[in-house]
Amino acid sequence: MTQLTDIWGEHLHTALSLAASGVPVLPLRAGKAPFGNCRRCANNACGGRPTMKTPGPCTCPKPCHGWAAATTDPNVLNSTAWRRAWREAAGVAYHPGGAGLTVVDLDNADAIAWARASLPATRAVPTTRGEHWLYRGAMPSANAVRPGVDIKSTMSYARWLGPGTGIMTALPDVVRGLTVTEPAPARPASVTVPALAGGGECPHRTPTYLDRGIAMAEQRITEAREAVHATVYRTFLAVLSTHGRCGCLTETHTARLFTAAQAKGESPRHCTDAWTNALTTLGLSHV
Fold first, then answer.
1. What is the mean pLDDT of residues 18-39?
2. Is the pTM of this model over 0.90?
């Protein structure tokens, strides 16, 4: 009994120490799971979200709602209701995003090897099977961003396993990029144009002339330093005004323009809208 008291007392002491440094904490049950909602909050009666992504208006003093229960308030952590939870707790968890942190959870040796080769060095905390790499800065959480790698930050919790070793560095773009889904390749709007009135072959169809024009348009978009939306639209307009009525353009050409625009941060939808607006301006949308 004394040993059990020492364990839960140690968990509470750890939680209070973390809370004092601004890290929101909560007790963990065996199996690294948070405490479930209490009877008062069962079946979402208190208004909390079923996914536990956000705390509801609940004022229940018990540690409900998963990560959203994490707190830095010592009065809550040390309250009678929470002390009961600490007696049953198997560990301490914290909300990384609430502390302005991101944890890259590396679950095996292969994941650790990848991190060492691909990510900036930062503070590392040993886990049962791998390591937690901690960065300063919060971001959306995501599971399985690559084999054996999870991101724990906002709306998530991580088990406290000690302070780790190494100097914590700022959250790099390469980690933020792990949660970004590659957009599907844009399919540019096709241009249907009337045949030449006098027959014959359009001079624009010569590869050198057309390729030079497309290359210049790509360069214009790529070199834009401001007003990217407007530059993309004006470039599409210029290309279509020169080549839109003669049947020169293929999907390969327009895909090159869309790719250049997306590389400057334009979304596929914005590209399609700009292309459609340019067609409409030139009276090509109905041909």
1. 89
2. no
